[in-house]
Amino acid sequence: MTLILKPGAVTLAEWQAIYRGATAALDPACRPAIARSAAAVAAIVAKGAPVYGINTGFGKLASVRIDAADLETLQRNIVLSHAAGTGGPMPVPVARLMMALKLASLAQGASGVRPETIDLLEALLARDLIPVVPSQGSVGASGDLAPLAHMTAAMIGVGAFHVGDRIVPAAEALAAAGLAPLVLGPKEGLALLNGTQFSTANALAGLFEAERLFQAALVTGALSTDAARGSDAPFDPRIHRLRRHRGQIAVADSLRGLMTGSAIRASHLEGDDRVQDPYCLRCQPQVMGAALDVLRQAATTLETEANGVSDNPLIFAEDGEALSGGNFHAEPVAFAADMIALAVCEIGSIAERRIAMLVDPALSGLPAFLTPKPGLNSGFMIPQVTAAALVSENKQRATPASVDSIPTSANQEDHVSMAAHGARRLLAMVENATAVIGIELLAAAQGCDFHAPLASSPGLEKVRTRLRAEVPHLDDDRHFHPDMEAAIALVRAGVLAEIVGAAALPAVTA
C-alpha cells in the first residue's frame, strides 16, 4: 500500500498506516514549491552574504564564514560530526515513520533542499530501505540532531540500512537498490538533520499503541466488572452528563454498552446487599475518561507537529529570505509525550487494582486467587504480583521529561525540551501496560467462569470464547507464562477491539 502524502495535511490515520508498514509518496502538487525553495538557496549562495546554515558554521560557530568552495564539505561534515548517537537502533516502524515525517516537512518548500534530495528519501521509503539509527543522543532541541544525522549519513553512503531482516552497509544497500549516495548541496545537511521528526515519530508510535491499549482496557474492565458481579449503575449517563467531561461520557457509554445483555449482571439486580463497588470498578469512567481526553489532546498536538516545518533556518522563497528561528525546539512534543505517559500509567494502574480485587475473596466473592482449590494451588497469586511490578515500573517512567533541561553547545542551546526522552519511553510503557491488561483478561475470564451457567454480554462472551480458544480455564496450577503470553498477544494485536467492534469503543486518533 502506497499513501500519497499532501505535505501539511497528512492525517493521523495516514501516519499510523505508515507506522504499520505502508509506503509513502509525495503528492506531485508539492514539487513547484520544492523547486522554488532550492532556487532561493542558490540565489543566497550567489549573493555571498553570510546566512546561517548556508555559508556559516553551526551552533556556537555560526559566526565563522565558509568559502563557497567548501560548502559541500560543510554540509557533509555536519552530518558526519553530528552522527554521534548511541544505544540500540530505533525500531524499524518508528524509523520509517520518522523518514516519512521528514519527507513531508521538506516537501513544504521552506527548507531549501533540491528535488533530487527529496527523490532519494522518497525512493528509500518506496524500497523499505530504513536507516539504522541509534536511539539515544537527542535532547529535543536544535532538532533531533544525532538521530536525524544517522538517517542522513545513510543517505550519503555512510552507516547502514535495515534491508529486510539484515543490516547492510549503506553504500552497499544503495548500490543494490540502484540508488546513488546523495551529494549534499548548500543547507541540505542541516535541513535533513534539523527538526523534531525523531521525537515526533516516537511520540506518534506511543500514541498509536496507547489507543489499542486504551480500547482493550475498556473491554477487560467491563469483563472484570461482570466477574466481580459489579454494578453498571455507575455508568448511568445521567451521572456523567452532570460532570460534562467528553471522555468520561464516552467511556461510560462504552462500558454500559459492553455490559448490555449480561445474564451475570441481571442475576443480582435484586437482593445484592453491596451498596457501592470499589473505585477500580465504579470510577472507570472518571479515570479512563480522563485518560481519553488527555490522549486526544496529545493526538491534536502531534498531528499539528507532524504537519509542520521544524528545521532552521527557514527559506521564504517569495521574499528570497532565510530566517533563523526556533521551530526545532520540541516542547510541544515533550508535553504531548508526557501526557501520553501519564495516561498509559493510569490505564495500567487501575487495571492492576481490578486484578487485585478479583483475586481477593473478601472483595470479589470469588475463590481465593481465582482457583477452585486455593492452598493446594496458587492460581492467579503471582500474575497479580507481576502486574503490580509492571505498574510500579511505569510509575517511575511516567515522571515528566519536559520539566528537565540541560544546556548544550557551549550554552548556545541553553534550554532544551527532552522530547526525545519523553517520547522514546512510551513504547516500553505501553508494552508494560499491555501485559497488565493481558493478565486482567485472563483473570476476568476466569472469574466469569465461576458464574456458569450464567453468561456475560454477547460482546464480552465473544472475547471470552476467543481467549478460551487459546487458553483453557485454569483448574489446577500449570505453567502460567504461556497463558499470559497468549493473552498479551491478543491485547497487543488489537484483537479485543476487533471482536467487540469499533463502534463499541471510543477512538483516540479518529
Describe the protein in words.
The chain has 510 residues and is mainly alpha-helical. The protein folds into two domains: 2-195, Fumarase/aspartase (N-terminal domain) (Fumarase C, Chain B, domain 1, Orthogonal Bundle), CATH 1.10.275.10; 203-308 and 342-406 and 413-504, Up-down Bundle (Fumarase C, Chain A, domain 2), CATH 1.20.200.10. It has helices at 12-19, 31-47, 71-82, 92-106, 115-126, 145-155, 170-176, 188-193, 197-227, 237-243, 246-259, 263-266, 279-282, 284-306, 331-359, 361-364, 381-397, 419-424, 426-449, 458-468, 480-492, 495-500, and strands at 2-5, 23-26, 86-89, 130-131, 134-136, 160-163, 166-169, 314-316, 321-323. The radius of gyration is 26 Å and the shape is elongated. The model has no long low-confidence stretch (mean pLDDT 95). Belongs to the PAL/histidase family. Keywords: Cytoplasm, Histidine metabolism, Lyase. It catalyses: L-histidine = trans-urocanate + NH4(+). This is Histidine ammonia-lyase.
